[in-house]
Every structure is written in structure tokens, then in C-alpha cells.
Amino acid sequence: MTRYEAKRLPRQTGPAGWNAILPPQDPLPVLEQDLIADITIVGGGFAGLTAARRLHQLDPSLKIALLEAGRFADGSAGRNSGFMIDLPHDLASDNYAGDGLDADRAAIALNRKAIAFATEIAADCDLPQEVFDPCGKYNAAATRAGDAHNRAFAGHLTKLGEPHTLYDQKQMQEITGSPHYVSGLFAPGTVMIQPAAYVRALSGQLASQIDVFENSPVTSFAKQGAGWVVNTAKAKVSTGRIILANNGHLESFGFYQRQLMHICLYASITAPLTEAQIKTLGGQPRWSVTPADPMGTSVRRISGSYGDRILIRTGSSFHPTIETSRMRLRNAGWVHDRKFRERFPHLSDVRMEHRWAGMLCLSRNGSAAFGELEDGVFSACCQNGLGIARGTLQGMGIAELALQGGSEIADHFLAQPDLPRLPPEPFASLGANSYLIWKEWRSGKE
Predict the structure, then answer these.
(1) CA distance 69 to 323
(2) What is the enclosing helix (H) or strand (E) of 20?
(3) Among 148, 197, 201, 414, which has the highest number of CB atoms less than 10 A from its own CB?
(4) Rounded CA gap, 446 and 438, in Å?
(5) Quick check: 74 and 132 in contact, CB under 8 A?
(6) Beta strands in 345-444 (DSSP E)
(7) Is the dihedral of CA 387, 338, 284, 137 positive or negative?
(8) For residue 403, what pLDDT is reported?
(9) Within a 13 Å sphere around the CA of 197, how many CA atoms are in the beta-carbon half?
(10) 344, 281 in Cβ contact below 8 A?
(11) Which of 352, 364, 369, 371 is nearest to 410 (CA)?
(12) Please, which residues have CB within 8 angstroms of residue 81's CB and are 6 or more apart in sequence?
């Protein structure tokens, strides 16, 4: 009998800050009684939630079960920085440009399908602007090298026919309140999301349409007749098909061994700014900055029912175990404090309220772990650091593959080359962490 055992379950380090600043969430049920489903989805992040919604759209008569290991919005989706980006965003490049004009145009078109899908969700869930804001974002440069990256990317966008605006240091300070940035490149197509609020809203809406469970980690699944049985600690689901939307933990069930890179990113968010601090800061109440160098520091200023706050995200480390340590989180926090002071020297009295770590999954060549792994078991994993747009897109595509046998989105992922293998340990960890440290050092003030 074909059987897949989970050799590890998701473990998080630090609170999911986006979730922690929201009011207490209503609990969703734990799977405690055996269930029968047509399709069972493992993972309640962007890919899993999107797949559930798309399946229900395609066939409302389907009996769908969605199993999330922890609480919705406490996992990696709720730890995302909230950038849903339409443009090329290749983290391995110097300036985000992709592999060529045709490939980038195709990627942009697909990303905008994902954004359109998420926009429908925002409308259906009546999400306010503080949760789903199609406001665009800035690539901010702090050095001459960063400014050169921005100008090179602007040239690439011109060739693509994509709108953008370059800003000088004075204009960037008027926007951000920070004297740190020497220039910026504004791209209007990014949607900024409060990821925990978005995940909460979508999981709650789906709970009225399908069977949605949290705190129900899948411990194993096995072939049973023409279908499968999915086991949790307290109950099981007998199902026709399975969709694995558990990103890096796909490997925990034995798939794509030594082909997935598990990278941890770190973030901190301030306590709500006081009226005096807001006045001292200046700038606009909401803005979002990605660094001109992909290995630099992302910054967001948010405002809404959860207060006026600033988020800092920087630092990364490679972890084949798919979890980091509190010591690494503490060390990253010191770096965040220093980066905050560099950008906002006039806010010396601001303190960080929450710090957290979040895992993402990459492949060496940027391909997704997507498709039918064996009869009736599908994967929509490995989003390569583009969680919201790519996860949404993969969720749409895997639903269309499972029910229709294919689609434009599914065919895009299926056409990608196979994921190459990683070097053996300890060489993979030594090489990856050395490379990340070098890249971060090279990014300098960015």
C-alpha cells in the first residue's frame, strides 16, 4: 500500500505579527470526526485557500475538505510582508528583471490574473483598504549602486511598456518621512495586503461553503481503493483526490527530496506610533518599499484600525529542517533595530512590539513543485519567494488541473523545467548561508 508519513510538522518561531495586531480571531473547527470528501486540500495558506475557492467556483457540488496544521493566519501566509506584485520580481537578479521581455510579459499577465482573482475575494469579503490596497509600491535606493539598479529596472520596464515613475531624494522623503533613500522607482500595479486579515476573511468565507478545519495537521496519507485516506491526530478524511498546498513541507511527505531550498526571513513591527511620533515622522500614512537590491531591507508604513506602525523585514538564513531558532530571531531583531535607526533617526523612542520568522521555499532554477505527483495527488508548492501572487496563481492552476485536466495557468507551471537537486549536506547549508551572508553584505545600506 502506498503511504506517505509526515516526518515533521510545521513549527513557527515568534508570533505572526500581522495576526497579533488584529483582534482575537473566531476559531474554526478541529477535525475530530471522520469525513468523506471528493478533494482534500492540505495547507491553508494562499495556495490552499485559493485552490479551495477555485474548486468551488468550478463545481459547487464538490465536497471539499481544507486542513490547516495550525491556526489560520498564524503560519507562513500570516508572516508574509504583504506585497502582491505584478511585475517581474526575480530575487536572484540584481534589479528584479527576469529572463527576457517575452518571459516577463507572460509572467506579468499571469500575475495580474492572480491579482484579479484576489480583488474578487476582497470585494466578496468586503475588505477595507487597510487590508487590501491597490496602491503600488516603491523600489527605494539608498546608494548610488541602488540608484543604478533602479534606473536599469526602469529601462527594462520601458521596454516592456509598463508604467513607472522615478523619484528623487526629496520626493522620497516627502513620501516616507525618511532621509535614507536617494531615489525611488514607483510601480502602480502592486497590491498591498494585510496578509493575516486577508487569510482570516477568506478562510471564514470558505467555511460557509466547504469543510474548513484548523489545528488539524496531516500526519500521513495512504492509498485506499481508488482514492486516498488522509490522517490527522484525531480523525481521517476518505477522499478521491488530494491537493498538497503546504509549500516546503511537501518535502516532509517525501516528495522533491533534496530539491527544495527552505529559506527563513525575519521581520519586526513597531508598536502603534503616538501622535507626536507621527508628527515627527511626517510622510504619507501608508507606503511600501522594496529595496533596490533584492537582498536589502523591505519597509512598510501601515495605518488603520490596528494603529499607525512601521514594519522592517531583512535577514535570511537557510534551514533544511524548515524551522529556525529563537536565537537567530533575536539576532535578526538587533539588525532590524539598526536598520530602523538608519532609516528613521528622528524616531529614537519607537519600540518594536512583535518580531517573527517565516519560511519560504525556493528551487535552484525558479521552477515550481507543481502538478500531479501520482494518481490523484497534486502539488501546488514552492512559490520561490513570491508567496501572495505565485501562491494564488498556483492555487488557481492546480484546481483547474485537478478538475479540467489543464488550463493556461496550469500549463505555464507544467512547462517549467524540473527542479535540480541540491548538493549534499553539510555543503548545501554552508554554501547557501555563505551566499546569503555575502549577498546581504553586498547590499550594504540598501
Answers:
(1) 15
(2) helix 17-20
(3) 197
(4) 14
(5) no
(6) 352-362, 369-374, 377-381
(7) negative
(8) 97
(9) 22
(10) yes
(11) 371
(12) 195, 265, 267, 298, 300, 311, 313
- Note the pLDDT tens digit of each residue in 341-362: 999 999 999 999 999 999 999 9
Distance CA 403, CA 409 (A): 13
Q: In angstroms, how far is the first alpha carbon of the chain from the final one?
A: 53
Q: Say what the pLDDT of residue 426 is.
A: 81
Whether the CA torsion 187, 147, 290, 84 is positive or negative: it is positive
Kindly tell me the sign of the dihedral angle through the C-alpha atoms of 220, 224, 226, 232.
negative
Q: What DSSP element (H or E) covers 343?
A: helix 326-343
**311, 18 contact by CB (below 8 A):** no
H or E, element range at 262: strand 261-270
Give the gyration radius of the chain's Cα atoms.
21
Q: For residues 101, 107, 113 and 118, what is the CA-based torsion angle, rounded to 10 degrees?
A: -130
pLDDT band at 281 (very low <50, low <70, confident <90, very high): very high
Q: What is the mean pLDDT of the chain?
A: 94
Helix (H) or strand (E) holding 141: strand 137-141
Whole-number Å distance between alpha carbons of 382 and 275: 42
User: For 121-160, how does the pLDDT look when each residue is reduced to its tens digit (9 = 90+)?
Assistant: 999 999 999 999 999 999 999 999 999 989 999 999 999 9
Supply φ then ψ for residue 374, to 5 degrees: -155, 180
Q: Length of the chain, please?
A: 446
Q: Which run of H or E residues covers position 53?
A: helix 46-58
Question: What is the band of 374 on the pLDDT scale with cuts at 50, 70, 90?
Answer: very high
Residue 445's SS3 state is coil
CA 385 to CA 351: how far, in whole Å?
28
From 263, 267, 259, select the one nearest 436 (Cα to Cα): 263
In this structure, the number of other CB atoms found within 10 A of the CB of residue 66 comes to 30
412: helix, coil or strand?
helix
Report the SS3 class of residue 167. strand
Question: DSSP class of residue 74?
Answer: T
Note if the bond before 128 is cis, omega within 30 degrees.
no
| Residue 115, phi-psi category: left (phi > 0), alpha (psi -120 to 50), beta (remainder) | alpha
CA distance linking residue 336 with residue 245, whole number of Å: 31
